[in-house]
Write a structure and sequence with these properties.
Helix content: under 10%
Number of helices: 6
CATH superfamily: TonB-dependent receptor, beta-barrel domain
Number of domains: 1
Shape: globular
Length: 727
Amino acid sequence: MKQLFKKGTEALRCIGIKELLLFSTTFFTGLAFAQQPTTTQQDSIKKLDEVLVQAVRVNATAPVTFSNVSKEELAPRNLGQDIPVLLNYLPSVVTTTDAGNGIGYTGIRVRGADASRINVTLNGIPYNDAESHGTYWVNMGDFASSAENVQLQRGVGTSTNGAGAFGASLNVLTDAFRKEAGGEISNSFGSYNSRKHTVKFSSGLINNRFEVAGRLSNIESDGYIDRASTSLKSYFLQGTYVGETTLIKAIAFGGSEKTYQAWNGIDAATMATDRKYNYSGYYTDEAGNVRFYDNETDNYWQDQYQLHWNEKWGANWSTNLAGFYTKGKGYYENYRDDAELPAYGIQPLTLGGETIAFADVITQKWLDNDFYGTTFSAVYNKSGFNFTLGGGANKYEGAHFGKAIWSQYSATTRPDDLYYNNSASKTDFNIFAKANYAIGSSLSLYGDLQYRRVHYKADNVTEDNEYVIPADDTFNFFNPKAGITYTIDTEYSVYFSYGRGNKEPRRSDYENGSVKPESLNDFELGWRYKKGSNSISFNGYYMRYKDQLVLTGAINDVGSPIYANSGDSYRAGIEAEASITAAKFLTIRPNISLSRNKNLDFFNETEDGPMNVGDTQIAFSPSVIAANQLIFTPFKNFQAALLSKYVGEQYMDNLESDNSKLKDYFINDINLSYEFKNVSVFKSVVLSGLINNITGKEYISNGYMWGDPYYYPQATRNFLVGATLKF
């Protein structure tokens, strides 16, 4: 133990004085506020719907680092931006968006780990794509409008279903049933021709037993970046049966998306003259004129179905059984300027005695996927002892194929001709047992054991017909976790935990030759304070990786990041967050993360072979991340919030190249909300407004290295305003 904390101390030693002062000022000022006496508030009654996620969630007695976000906290800013952007102010979180304004393709990183390393479940059911491990919120537009609450666990977290958690776990509980009938109509409009239209309804409990509820949404935006348009259509429908000891939910949700591609980014020279420029769709015609293909788009349709049955057996036992099926299908369409015809299944032509082997081609890269399975859990709770037995099994079947739908000179291309065609399958089974045992009123012991078995098979993981790398691998992972929580009194507690995680390679990792599974040992030490509406928490972590697949800084031809095994590496840091009622009308919610993220003896592939470049910073891992929310409620039904976010400098590669460094940035948003009660036929009318980046700062939150650096500029000052009619 002594050696562990010595390593953690050494890892943090290089954090600068400026950051430590920022940390001290923010939190010790907040601590002074928190010590003011307040009236203790009773905890709200746990909703019956929350049994759907209790097997994969934790509470304050567990030695796990986490943050909760409620529907009420999301609502004032829920004007069309995606869930990652709405979670931007949580500790250790960095978000980015291709279009620049938070609508369309968005990404999230937690403790430097990107979305493919963040386990995401919806009602306890896995959502990460089985092959890429990514989460594509663009396929579920306006899903925040159907989210009851969200829990973000940082680090390994507790055992869950689906992809391994190598940075965080994000668990979303969808809408709870309503006892009374009602509905709402929401409309919002804003910069870049952005708009969101949502209709929701609930029948309420019919005969005190049945409810039918649903949502229809449409989101459109031109995007901050040129032609980075987004068109999202989505739905959510659920039927609920509530009995004395039974809860049954049938849920269907999904939608379609069409986004103009903006994943190419721009180089430094272009950004200096036009930071909105978008290379996607670029080509030159016969006269040498620059033109842009008007359908350089990403198109995808996805439908998800869930059936949950929860039963309470006596005073101590409850069970949950769920089945699910997800159907996804879609394609990227690209204009290929002066492409090599045989690479796209087109034979060279001879015209006037000249052989034409290169010509313009329009291609579509298709995915056609089925994902289905089950999750289960049994929970026993009595006299300070809580035991959970859970797990799940699922199967993925995916087809990858490409079409050349048009060629400049060829008349032989047909819509059904394929220039590549391959398939993949993946089975994933896991079972876990968790126990939390209270010894007296002060001490709580936690144990968590998980076994996970993954089999992945692909007949071809490349798409250029030049070579084939088959995959047929089985991985057996054992993931133990243990911890202890000591409650000093009713207000203070400390915890320590250890967790191990293992993760299989992605589909793209096979293509890049990185086929080793990854392993992680995560140590967390924390302190919590809660009194009434005030809470403060500090935690330190040390995450030691073996064969971590780190971002190289490069991307492939469809904008997906490329990874490489780094051997030994670690992430170590301290995080703190608070929610402080400074006055009756003022709430302060600051957080800060200071970290050190290192590859140890990193090898760089060169023309002369691997070269050891020593210890380097892990790409896309800023050492300082801070946020704050100042929430003013000067009178009833009105809220004004100043939202601030600081992200320190970071590298886009693992070599600490000067030209790969992204500058730090500090941005501020203003959020306003006012609710009129009992207006005409409506229960209430809510008016909301959001001004993003009020200082108009030109900043960059993401990029990549392709020899030279390329960047994704984010929007300067922009706004969204909306109105919600509730009845």
